[in-house]
Amino acid sequence: MGTFVSWNCRGIRTKLQDIKEMINNLQPVCIGLQETFLTSNALKLRGYNSVRKDAATGTRHSGGVCILTSNLYPSTPLTLHTSLQAVAVQVHARTLVTVCSVYIPPHDVISHHVLDNLIEQLPTPFLLLGDFNGHSALWGSDVTNTRGRQIEQLISNNCLCLLNNNEKTYFHEPTRTFHSLDLAICSPTLMPLLDFTVGKDLYNSDHFPLIVSYADSGGAIQYPPRYLFQRADWSAFMQLADVTESMVCTEDITEAVQNIVDSIINAANNTIPRSSTRLRKFRRPWWNEACRDSRREEKKLWNIFRRYPTTENHVAFKRAKALARRIRRRSQRESWINFISSITSSISSKQLWKKSRLLMGSIMNIPFLF
Fold first, then answer.
1. In what order do the strands lie in the sheet with 85-92?
2. Between 20 and 30 A from 333 (CA), which of 50, 110, 137, 167?
3. Quick one: which of 213, 210, 20, 36 has its CA closest to 130?
């Protein structure tokens, strides 16, 4: 319980399945995304609320930030008065925490006052996540540049804590080198409560996700169960929910009402099934054995390249990645064709409505409505 993720996705449109996979694996409270490459398209993902700020440079849209917050946790978006690409929400995980996602392009010149002003607008305790594009030995870089020194000063002047260790967060493909560009910064009160790790999978980006979680994981959050009335045994319910005279013949009206309520709830619990409290995951009806095997091979070759970053290993990984992507796309296309082909004039009305609900569910969960 209580995991926060930050990831430079390099475009949400092409990374939707990767975001869903990340959610299925981590079940985060919220995900801070950078370089979303969004314009004015609506963003909708089942089970998550979004707060975003798009960045446009001329006719070519680039940058942009977004926070996806699970609707299992109460949250409120914050209004930030800043020129930075930054958004923030207050979310109640264990306590009320402010989460801010920020992206600073590598060639932008940012003054200290702008960064300090952002910090002043964040209610404490807060978690500042994002791609700062700064190099510093403080977070594992081989060199320190101007942006890195600026971030160092920001941390020092505002008495903040850096969660990063020496793990690399960015893979520069042209040079086949790894760097630390993504940071997790927090208020001092959060520092002893949090663990920091860097994900091992790029999820088809060039940045690894940052994973910040509470050191004491606590109990896992669950969906509240719902009564499944269509499967109820109503005859047994009527027998168990019998209101007798002894229940209501009391001097205290409150006690009488409580007796009736207890009788009804007890009858419902014994005769009406309830839904599972397990967290729901995104379905992948197109996922098959070929997808699984190609994905496994891609991960295997990536791990080999991480240990031995040679040209030969890099080429082998890129081929496996391209093959896995091609297999997934083919499987998605075939799955959709099979689904549509199954809707014929000969199917029953029950099956027709069932498929219609599935179809409407998939349409409602399309994240970008043009």
1. 75-78, 85-92, 96-103, 126-131, 182-186, 161-162
2. 50
3. 210
Domain of 78: which CATH number? Answer: 3.60.10.10
Report in angstroms the alpha-carbon separations of 164 from 136, 142, 184, 246, 303. 11, 15, 6, 65, 22
Residue 244 belongs to domain spanning: 226-275
Domain total for the chain?
3
261 and 330 assigned to the same domain: no
**Residue pair 104/148 in contact by the 8 Å Cβ criterion:** no
178 three-state secondary structure:
strand
Q: Is the pLDDT of residue 218 over 60?
A: no
332 and 248 together in one domain: no
| Inside any domain, residue 112 | yes
Q: In what order do the strands lie in the sheet with 65-70?
A: 48-53, 65-70, 30-34, 3-8, 210-214, 194-198
Q: Is the pLDDT of residue 101 over 80?
A: yes
Distance CA 130, CA 124 (A): 18
| Residues 127, 14 within the same domain | yes
299-327, pLDDT tens digit by residue?
Answer: 999 999 988 988 999 999 999 999 998 99
Using CA atoms, how far apart are residues 90 and 74, in angstroms rounded to an integer? Answer: 8
Beta bridge partners, 103, equal: 85, 131
88 and 31 in a single domain? The answer is yes
